[in-house]
Design a protein that fits this description.
Layout lengths: L51 H9 L5 H12 L4 H49 L7 H43 L3
Helix pairs in contact: 1-2, 1-3, 2-4, 3-4
Length: 183
Amino acid sequence: MLIACGQGASAQIPGQDPNWPCAQRLVPVLTPGSYWAGNVPANTGWRDDDKMFPLVTDIVNRDTPDDRALAKLRQYAGGVPAAQRGMLFSALVDETNDERTLLIRRIEQLGLRQRRMGDVVADISTKVDEMPANDTHRADLAGERDFDVRAFQETQRTMRYACEAPASMERRLGAFARALQGK
């Protein structure tokens, strides 16, 4: 059974953190200027605002469907001046970055576990290959390897899904910016 395991299992983007397990480029922090035309005023007090805090956290929450998040955003934005829209977008960027940071850490931890599991599978495979064919423990060790390979492959499928989430959050933030700017 041939399986690509260990650190060399995925191609790295040049200049990318070698511990980042995803094919997508890691963008650790999103900035308002990447999405917003013009100056975005900082909004450091939004978490203390009784209206803005629940709105922002609900809109950014990945469990909130995109259409519902955009509808809430448009409804709120319709009743505030343009300057406050920029402050709202600043809050959306802050909350998105907070959520993405946690997600990115979990993906990095999953990648580390995968590299370790790949090393375990490689070690067991080497031991199985080095054992005489008539060794009574060979079948047990091969069974252990096969189980670990299945676990590795299942986690790889999870990893592909998880790796899409930060980019999805970036796209969603872009949609928020367009909605707030009336585009």
